[in-house]
Amino acid sequence: MTTLKLHEQPERVAKRDEFLKQAGWGTAQRRLLAGDASFRRYDRLTLGQRTAVLMDAPPPHEDVRPFTAVRGILGGLGLSAPALYAGDEAEGFLLLEDLGDDTYTRLLQRGTDEPMLYRLAVDVLVELTRNIGPADLRSLPALDDARALDEVSRLTEWWWPAAMGAPIPSAVLEEYRAAWRAVLPRGRQAPESIGLFDYHVDNLLWLPRRQGVAACGLLDFQDAVRVPAGFDLMSLLQDARRDLQPGLEPELYERFLAGLPKLDRASFADAFAVFGAERHSRIIGTFVRLWKRDGKPGYLVHLPRVWRQLESALAAPAMAPLKSWFDRHVPREKRGAISP
């Protein structure tokens, strides 16, 4: 069942219409705003001069409670997460503030000042890392070793048979997991912070009428985790879908560290490499899974970029055990495109 058909089921439509009626938006015009790689759907509602966004996240495929919890954390810190107008968490409906259409992705396509946008996004991360409270941090799920091992297994479960033509041998798989168990502790020397998990240009907006870090709107943060500081910086600077202009990544890396001078640089560099490799391995597997399982081959075009990012992370000294595994088992010519 496709995501669109799921949201068009008569029972789901009736629940949506009742939710909007109870929220005072029953007569609003509605049009599809966005879908994504999940089961969530977003519609823009127009009622007179007012607009809002409906998130339709049908259970059991989705759970809106993490979104509302993280939205509260971000809003409490003065950051621009969408305001919540109404919600039915049990049924998976949220009525949210409409932050507009000026995502970083669209702005960059129109030639907006790239360094300005990225500096603002880094400043948001500095503010968030500085000010997240201990109780809020403890409320988030941890990206612990068990979860990390599960996520990186997507590469061996989905990418390996698609690229290599057969399932991964069990002994090679165990070597892979052992290599990860060796490097993950090196990534945990940096202090823990919040990671919004999908912090990249598709989920950031420019709100020029707002001041300071509030000028950066935040979307799609329901998967936030407790993770070593710098996870979102890595997600931003090593985007699976686009390359930054030359020289911008090291500048922004230094900007983040300058804003957090108490961070130990060596420990931070290890965390950046380890969880960069963790994210890139997961994304390689996820993009192939979206093709094979969900019939969405469009993400495959990004595989060469993500492989380059993974190889960059593997070059760090902390990654030696995992780099050795890739060098022994994944030929260079396999580290790139796959044709659907």
CATH superfamily descriptor of the largest domain: Aminoglycoside phosphotransferase (APH), C-terminal lobe
Top-tier CATH class of the largest domain: Alpha Beta
- The shape is globular
Query: Structural class, judged by helices and strands?
Result: alpha+beta
In the CATH scheme, what's the topology name of the largest domain?
Aminoglycoside 3'-phosphotransferase, Chain: A, domain 2
How many DSSP helices? 13
The overall pLDDT, averaged over residues, is 96
CATH architecture of the largest domain: Alpha-Beta Complex
How many structural domains in the coordinates? 2
State the main characteristics.
single chain; 340 residues; alpha+beta; Phosphorylase Kinase, domain 1; Aminoglycoside 3'-phosphotransferase, Chain: A, domain 2; two-stranded antiparallel ribbon; 13 helices; 9 strands; 48% helix; 13% strand
Q: Can you give a write-up of this model?
A:
With 340 residues, this protein is of the alpha+beta class. The chain has 2 domains: 3-96, Phosphorylase Kinase, domain 1, CATH 3.30.200.20; 104-334, Alpha-Beta Complex (Aminoglycoside 3'-phosphotransferase, Chain: A, domain 2). It has helices at residues 3-8, 10-22, 65-76, 104-109, 114-131, 134-138, 145-164, 170-183, 231-237, 248-259, 265-292, 303-314, 320-329; strands spanning 29-35, 41-47, 50-56, 84-88, 93-96, 192-195, 204-206, 216-218, 225-228. The chain has a 5-stranded antiparallel β-sheet. Strands 6-9 form a two-stranded antiparallel sheet. The longest helix has 28 residues, at 265-292. It is globular. The two termini are 20 Å apart. 34% of the residues are buried. The mean pLDDT is 96.
